[in-house]
Every structure is written in structure tokens, then in C-alpha cells.
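[READ THE FOLD]
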Amino acid sequence: MTALSLRTAIIFATAIAVVNGFGRFAYALLLPVMREDLAWDYALSGWLNTANSLGYGLGALAGMLLLSRFRPATLFVWGLAVCVTTLLLCGLTRDIYLMMFWRLASGVGSAWVFACGGALVAAHYAKDSARSAAAIAIYYAGGGLGIALSGLLLLPVLGHQWSWAAGWVLLGMAGLAFSLWPSKLALGIGGTTTTLSHDALRWQHYTPILTAYFLFGVGYIVYLTFVIAWLREMRLGVEAATGVWLVLGVAVMVSGYAWRGVMARWWPAHTFAAACLCTAAGTAAPLLSQGLGTLLASAVLVGGSFFMAPGAMMALARTTLPPSLWAKAMNLFTFIFAIGQGVGPVAAGWIADRQGLSTAMAAGAVTLVLAAALAFAQKRGSGAA
């Protein structure tokens, strides 16, 4: 068989740019401005990302059930539509409870895109072992495009030329533009590369890595939620903060290529552990020095690593399960991950309000190290019933 082009993986990666780059992580840019305008403390600010993570968990749980009736491609397209719509709606209210509802709904759609898109990519490249690992890595690294673009799109908001509400609307419009191509592609290939799943998944087999994935969700989201607010506390200017965010996004974009060899050769649980340790190092680096060079290195380490953890989870499903269970497994993994992401922002915000953001970041780094340690306990073997 002729090797498949990675073009399909790149197109699907733009969907991750929408649901993660715009739908999840861009909130870190809007948070300081919203916090000042709406008089929120850090704990209350963290609730918006927690609502998004709770929606992520609900979406993953619903996805495991819906995949018995709908193909992954269908949930993928529905998820993109929900995420784009809620981005627009977040700019039309100042009510925190309504905004939390839209963020929760966005999380539901994001989970469907994240899990089902990964399964579609894995299935498309299932017969091309030379490209499969690289395709999965590229897909999950697509969030970097959204992170980098959100930094450019929201620069006028950080500079107080635009309101934060305008920033949400702009993200929604950009998300709509980026959703069209992967939606068309998913509907075109979804009927031939994936099937409805009625098989059982032995989730108990994955207890160590699921626990590690929960801790990863708790730990990594601390940096991604509060890093811009942290930089503002360091009294860095808008340009420096934007520069760090752009470096973060670019690092995510290249991470798929940087890790493709590791993804292809290592046992996925070990790849996961390495991604956790690199993310922990990047989170902890600014605790040692707040020089611009250290902050940029921190962004490279975090951005270059954190999306490889879900990539490793997809690789684990691909190497231990039949194709019919890939989407179901990724929804289970995403559900556990989402619970961790829900705990992280509120817990870190609570710590930050009492001990400062530096202490919250240190707690996030320690949690990531614990996740790496647990990942090494994951045994090889199949999780299929």
C-alpha cells in the first residue's frame, strides 16, 4: 500500500485548534481582563474553566453511549457546531451563570471532537504503520495553531482597545472558518473508516494510566488557565505576555513532529510519563527565575509536551484494542481527563487566593510528577473483553 499523506491529519488538527486553542485555552488570555471588569477573584475565575471541563466529562460520557447509535464522524461534526456557537454566545452576556452554562456546553462539544476526531485519524491511518504515530501526534498538536492564533486575535483585548466580549465573538467567527474543512472531511471518510461499536471495554485494565491521566488533567490545566494572570502579576507588559503565549502555541504546533519518533517506538505509557515530566519542568521553571529567557523556555517545554499526553492515550488504545473500540476508549479516557481538568482550575484558584499563584503553579508541577510515576505502572496487554 502506498504511504498515506499526512494532509488528512493536518486538516483534522484544525478542529483541535478550534475546540482546544479557541474553546479552552484562549480563556487564559481573556481571564485577566474579565477578572478586572467583573470583579472576580481567582477561584471564581477558575470556575469558568471548571464548567468547561465538567462539560468535557459529560460529553465524553455521553459519547460512549451515543457511539452505539451514531458514527464518530457524526459526533465530531456536532461537537464542532456546539463549540463554535457557544464561543459566540459567551460574548453576549455578563451573567456568570449563563456564561458557565455556555462553557459547559462548549466542553460537551469539545469532548466529541477531541475523542472522535482522534479515532477517525487513527482509523484512517490504521494500515499505514509508517505514518500512524506521526498522524496522531500531529492531530493532537493542532491545538497549538489555535493557541498561537488566539494570541494574535486577542492582542487588542489584552491592550484594552477591545472589550473581552468582542474577543469571544472574534474567537467564534474564527472557529467557524476553521471548522468547515475538517467537518467536510469527517463526513466524507467517516462512513468507510469507522463503524458503530457494540463491543465491551475492560476499563479496569487501564486503572494505573487512567489515574495518571486524571492527575495530568489536574496538573497541566493550572498553567494553561493562569499563566497570563501570573505574568501580569510579574508586571510584564502586554507584549511579553503575548510573546510567551505565541511561543507556547508554536511549541504545540511543532510538538507532533518533535515527538513522532518517540510516539512510534516507545510503549505509549512511557511516552505519557515523559510528556508529564516535561510539562512539569516547564510549569516549575518560572519558580526558579522570572527572566524572560526562562519564561520562554517554560512555554517551549509546556507547549512542546502537554498535547502528547492525549496523543499517547490514543496510541495506547490503538495498540491494545481493536478499531471498533478506539472511539469508545478515547471517550472513556477523555471523561477521566475531564474530571481532572475540572478539579485543577478551582483548586489552583483557591490556593492562589490564599498562598499566591506561584504556590498554585508549584502544586500543579508536583501533581504532574505524580502522574508520570503512576504511568510507569501500566501493564501491557489488551483491554478488549
